[in-house]
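Let's see one such:

===
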Amino acid sequence: MVRRHRRRAGLARAIYAATLSFIAASCLFVAAASAAEQKKWVKGATQTRLSEAINQNTITIVSGNLNATYLSIAYDLSAVLDDGENLRILPLVGKGGGQNIRDVRFMKGVDLGITQSNLLGHFKRTNELGWIDDKIVYIAKLFNEEMHLVVRAEAGITAIEQLAGKTVNFSDIGSGTQLTTRDIFERLGIKVTEVNMGQADAIEKLKTGEIAATVLIAGKPTASMTKLRAADGFRFLPVPFAKKLQDDYLPAALSDDDYPGMVEPGRRIDTIAVGAVLIAYNWWSGSEGYRVIDKFVQAFFSKLPEFQKPPRHPKWREANIAATLTGWTRFAAAQEWLDKNRGKPELATLEQFEQFLIARRFAIPDETPGPEAREKLFQE
């Protein structure tokens, strides 16, 4: 009986010791698991904060394809303005001016877009996108986009009127080039057969004679046009600054400085241009969309001189953030910045205006504005 009790007592002690060991091991396991979970939680919380910071301070800008200037301009915005988690500019490859207006108006996640100023008027007149006067606002006018009209020299076409009845590429469907080229040909009363393709494909079609011309409206010099050579049989066709075009377009020229392989030294090819403008959705003051665009405006406007230095695109030298866009409302935060910073070098200067007049006189030799006209032009 004593031995049995002793055995039971020993067994109880063994069970008790084993239980303590199990509990200790379990506590260590729980502690280890808890530490891992804590690290995982801390890591998750850090990632959440980083995600929130990135998303709160990232602004998207829909631009254009590789053939045009918009993508280079959008990249420059990113290169100059990116400031870690405080501000990030995310360029998006887009279809061009026409589609960009649609994307800014309707697409979620698109904050800004670059388009042609005349296309805003087009959509207002056609009402294709509904009433957009209070939905789309502009940040600033950026630069001029020149019309590049390319033909084969061997075709013997020397004037735009000779394209009547022929097949002409108006570039990609929905692009600013397509819609603006339609407008130009309609105003000039020149009826052609429109086809739509990228410039690389169009150049191949030109070589085989399947099309008579291709059009690209973009800020010079543009990548696809710099690849062309007069020695290969290509030439720019002049586009006159006809009276029917003067409401929405400007006189311009392509020179050997722009395209040394296409224009002889000292020669200029007359063409027309349309203004490129940076637009935004008209978020209400106090909204998250308004806040992030406001943040972009403060950084962009204050750093404009940085965009006008190498290696940024040459078109930045034409940017005048103070210029107004008739018939449209500027984004409220942008207008407030301009009102507070009148007279600063980022804004228009008389010297810039004089350079504009020189270019204008070159393009229109017989038109020299008098004192009253000069003052009106300067105010505009």
Remarks:
- The longest helix spans residues 2-56.
- The two ends are 116 Å apart (CA to CA).
- Confidence is low (pLDDT under 50) at residues 1-7.
- Residues 175 and 377 are 30 Å apart (CA to CA).
